[in-house]
Fold this sequence. Notes:
Elements: H1 16-22, H2 54-61, H3 72-81, H4 88-98, H5 125-138, H6 141-152, H7 162-176, H8 180-195, H9 213-216, H10 234-238, H11 260-278, H12 284-300, H13 306-327, H14 343-353, H15 356-371, H16 375-387
Helix pairs in contact: 2-4, 3-4, 3-7, 3-15, 5-8, 6-8, 7-8, 7-12, 11-12, 11-13, 11-16, 12-13, 12-15, 14-15, 14-16, 15-16
Amino acid sequence: MDQPEVKPHTHKLSRRRFVRQTLTVASVTLLPSSLLSSCQSVPALTAASTNVDPMDQALEMMANLGPFSNHGPMAAEALVALGRADKVLEFVAAYKQRVRLPYPATRQLITRENWRSALGDPGRSADWVNFFNRELKQAEWQDVLKQWSDVLAPGLAAAAAHGLIRTAHAVRSLSVKETDLRRRELAEGLGYWAAYYQPLPETKHADEKGFKPAAAIEKVPLLPDELRRRGGSIMVALRGLESFQPFAGVANLVEIRGNTDQFLSELTETFAGSYLKVVNQRNLITLIHCVTGTAGLRSLVPHLSPATTQKMLRYGWQMAAGLYSIAANRSRDNRPESTETSLDDLIDRVVASREEHAIKFTEACLQEYGLNRKDIYLQAARDAISRL
């Protein structure tokens, strides 16, 4: 069978469990429980629905939306993590009014024998989701995640990291409560990742340079303007790196051995700072994904083997560095002066915005702030809310 073997400064911190508990975490391998606060029962939007859990009800409401560019399930889970489960159904109802994403047709059955030929084929996204739905019915979701994270790690840039991000939100939701709808959402995330699988150029078997992310980011070669692809998707823009030989060594710049949680904090802090330094309206979404993508790794690594964790960290760094390379300009420095930011205010503002990117980015920044109390996360979240 042609498939890998499955191996069995002081801020106002008053947002109840979200803030109280995250700031008491000294060292974690799983996400803080406060970021996964229990779903609160709210009235169903329709009498036909039998779900009372707002996360499951949200997934049920969005079941017919196609996977590409569907931010709804991710933002809904982020709202739960922010302690605002009571706003999930309101958000989903508004989201469905303005987003039309027809579900793609199936083409050909993907099996454990023929999956390689479908890898990286966006036209097979529905086939991939069906494949993972079958896999998740035959094995524990943790085992499926462990196996396929190892296979898909080199393609973490898939759909501008949305495959990773959607998978991460699904995993975090499943870690709280296992339901068929949440397993289906994991199949959507993994299917999205596999269908849009996009490896970036790398020099294989080269020695690691051993830099910390904050130093390594200064050594990432920026894609020259003449090679940058204007218009189109971020995925198309990333293809510009294929003919940019200096980028091939980027994956080897950082030291990934050591404390995983510390490395992830260094990674997210670096890219939150980079976001503030070079953000403008044109590169906003690309730079946001540098943070939401790397923050999403934190949900996956507790379920992975040590070897797969190392791969995920390496390619997670490379993915974010690739997005930075196609979007950044070192001649700019837009970092605002540090000002005190209330977490209550950030959460209230982003919930009111109903903007899916702002919700996901703010939640990722606050997750990371809870583990690494650096103002840069709060400044980045505040800036994104004001721009989106």
